[in-house]
Amino acid sequence: MTGSLLIVDDEQSMCDMLAADLKSRGFDVDCHTSPDAALAAFHQGMYQAVLTDLHMPGVDGIELCTQIVANRPDVPVVVMTAFGSMETAIAAIRAGAYDFVTKPVELDLLEMTLERALWHHELQDRVRVLSATVEQSQRFDDILGASPPMQKLFDQLSRVSDSEASVLITGESGTGKELIARAIHRKSRRADGPFVAINCAALPETLLESELFGHAKGAFTDARFERKGLFQQAEGGTLFLDEIGDFPLSLQAKLLRAMEQRTVRPVGGNTEVPYDARLLTATNRDLESAVEDGTFREDFYFRINVIQLESPPLRARGSDVLLIAQSYIEQFAAQSQKAIVGLNEPVAEKLLAYSWPGNVRELRNVIERAVALTRYDRIAVEDLPEKIRDYRTSTLRIDTGDPAELAPLEEVERRYILQVVEAVGGNKTQAAKILGLDRKTLYRKLKEFDDESTVSDG
User: Fold this and answer.
1) Chain-centre distance of CA 14, in angstroms?
2) For site-directed labelling of 439, which of 378, 381, 403, 408 has its Cα 20 to 30 A away?
3) Domains and their CATH numbers in the chain
């Protein structure tokens, strides 16, 4: 990371040396030997970090740091000193300095320190505008998102919401598929009608049929009264079937017929009852693979999949994680009546680095916990769960010059395939498309990886 730096040192030769080196590393640099001139330039310019000597005639580095922090606390100040004692370091930090380096300056170490300072500045910028961004950001109904994947989804939602076509919403668990379904309903011409939702995986087959289609009086032992099913309860509105991938195979033909005929037959009934409801479905399973395996009817899959929308995983949404976190902070702070206004920069860095296997649902739980635990007006790192505080990403290095770090081609392929499969939440159809493989080849390779693991573990 490079950016705009202001360098202050009363020795012209030191200024020239630092400027030449840092410019060669991609930094945009201005130099001043006078602290007063440097302060004037600072107030007129848009610097992202300041590098200043500690001991200078007139206004010294501590005073310069104090004035900069008082006016622009978001701009990190790195102090240089030839006196590397603990006392000078403490004085600089107390004055608000971000970090300090000792003279003679080790240029590689200085570059790393300045890169950290610039990253700190960028995170402060992000955190500072989060609250305003929550209010001003582009959104679709209650769905927040400024990232490209979400802007693409919003565009799709704006075009399909007022349609009557069936929509299949795919995505990993916790990505907000029901939120998308509710948004479609509220933006549709059926918004004044009911939104009825059911989790298909939560009910046994016999009860699920009765819930969907209703039952006649006396249809079974406890059927003392006639009961309308969810299709009829959603009359004039929207019926949302979540976890459609777990819908019993034996009932799929009945549901397909209901969709085709726009009628339902209650359990134990003799007549068809018409209904007027739009059907939305969602799944975190790979339905194309289920069709190939024979556990999901192909005709039923095509009927529910007239329009497919993908709810992207949180790890693919970049800074949206901070946007959503800020929204949850405001929500839970209001509920608990705590004066919490946001999160600090180290927390932002941790949230951006974490992979979020549980997606938005996991983020919500993390923020709710942090709001309950924090003793400050901003969420701190200590308020986060240990797995997020200590998270370390695992990457495959191919740009290293150290032969010891290089992996055989076979291992590179194995690790990359597994990484892609993990990135798409186990959706092998999507992974095969990304990898440029047909599904059978991908299945064979994954089976080989499993066999190798079993052998090595044995």
Assistant:
1) 44
2) 408
3) 4-129 (3.40.50.2300), 140-310 (3.40.50.300), 314-389 (1.10.8.60), 403-457 (1.10.10.60)
